[in-house]
């Protein structure tokens, strides 16, 4: 990652505007990586690509973080016991 | 090959046992999905109930050992569209032409997602993230729930939502950008510097 960090520092010093991935193919493929839908070849290619491409690395990093935060921080509700009971009664105790 | 294959009579007890085994363990997931769709506890209860009733009624058409979760989620989603969307104040279905053309164009909208920081997102609390998700239009909210919270594959989502896989991908991409916009607004109000 040294190359990437250096480039990132240089970009921050000389260019206030954050670069975005400009290639829609990258955006599509990075999403595949996030969702575990990429082939091994695609994954290998894009992990290597991100070593050299700051916009892609940052996009991927942010997307990954958002997904993880959604998974970890959104409260999972417990189904009300009364609902389970009602359903079982309605389904199982019906006379056929 | 025999002309008449005698299908063994499944007793109600056997049917109930199979139903219990395959479908009841999924009720927590379904309830959470129903709640995130309706954003109302009573509606969620009704929706889950209706889903299980339908699932039981059409149990014969379910091939055992296949994807029970996707099957149930599809029933729930269809019930939601048929019964609840009419009643709710949710915005109407999105214009998918807009979604498709966005994804296919090579121009990246620079307004989207430029300044949301990884550490700002990591510091957010559950309520903030949930509020951002709930603020999305229901179709975008749905696809994020199915992908990120329930872990369905693109193919499974295509079946649940009755859309092509290409549309799954483009809708997901659009939904995530909208979500990041919402999160960026929260980050701003929380005082994170951009």
Task: Explain what this protein looks like in three dimensions.
The complex is a heterodimer of chains A (96) and B (194). By secondary structure, chain A is mostly helical. Helices cover 72% and strands 0% of the residues of chain A. Chain A has one domain (2-92). Chain A is elongated. In chain B, 66% of the residues lie in helices and 0% in strands. Chain B is elongated. Residues 100-112 of chain B have low confidence and may be disordered. Chains A and B meet through α2, α4 and α5 of A and α1, α2, α3, α6 and α7 of B.
Briefly characterize the structure.
The complex is a heterodimer of chains A (96) and B (194). Helices cover 72% and strands 0% of the residues of chain A. Chain A is built from five helices and no strands.
Specify the CATH homologous superfamily of the largest domain in chain B.
Answer: Winged helix-like DNA-binding domain superfamily/Winged helix DNA-binding domain
Task: Give the ordered list of helices and strands of chain B.
Answer: HHHHHHHHHH
Main sheet: strands, sense, barrel of chain A: none
> What's the gyration radius of chain B in Å?
20 Å
SSE layout and pairings?
The complex is a heterodimer of chains A (96) and B (194).
Chain A: H1 2-14, H2 24-34, H3 40-52, H4 54-73, H5 81-92
Chain B: H1 12-23, H2 27-38, H3 41-57, H4 68-87, H5 96-104, H6 118-122, H7 126-134, H8 138-149, H9 154-161, H10 165-189
Which terms summarize this structure?
heterodimer; A: 96 residues; mainly alpha; elongated; B: 194 residues; Arc Repressor Mutant, subunit A
């Amino acid at each position: 990652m040294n190359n990437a960090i250096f480039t990132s520092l240089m970009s921050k010093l000389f260019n206030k505007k954050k670069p975005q991935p400009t290639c829609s193919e990258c955006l599509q493929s990075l999403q595949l990586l996030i969702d575990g839908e990429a082939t091994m070849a695609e994954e290998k290619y894009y992990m290597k690509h991100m070593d050299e491409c700051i916009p892609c690395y940052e996009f991927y990093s942010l997307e990954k973080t958002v997904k993880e935060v959604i998974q970890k921080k959104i409260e999972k509700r417990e189904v009300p016991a009364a609902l389970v009971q009602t359903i079982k009664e309605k389904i199982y105790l019906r006379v056929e | 090959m025999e002309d008449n294959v005698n299908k063994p009579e499944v007793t109600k007890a056997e049917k109930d046992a199979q139903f219990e085994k395959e479908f009841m363990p999924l009720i927590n997931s379904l309830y959470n999905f129903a709640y995130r769709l309706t954003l109302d506890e009573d509606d969620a209860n009704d929706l889950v109930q209706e889903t299980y009733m339908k699932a039981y009624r059409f149990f014969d058409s379910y091939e055992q050992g296949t994807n029970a979760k996707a099957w149930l989620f599809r029933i729930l989603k269809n019930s939601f569209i048929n019964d609840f969307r009419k009643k709710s104040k949710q915005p109407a279905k999105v214009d998918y032409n807009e979604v498709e053309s966005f994804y296919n164009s090579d121009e990246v909208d620079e307004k989207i997602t430029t300044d949301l920081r990884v550490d700002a997102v990591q510091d957010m609390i559950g309520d903030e993230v949930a509020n951002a998700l709930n603020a999305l239009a229901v179709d975008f909210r749905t696809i994020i729930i199915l992908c990120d919270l329930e872990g369905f594959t693109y193919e499974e989502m295509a079946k649940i939502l009755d859309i092509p896989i290409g549309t799954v991908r483009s809708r997901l991409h659009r939904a995530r950008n909208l979500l990041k916009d919402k999160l960026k607004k929260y980050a701003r109000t929380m005082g994170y510097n951009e």
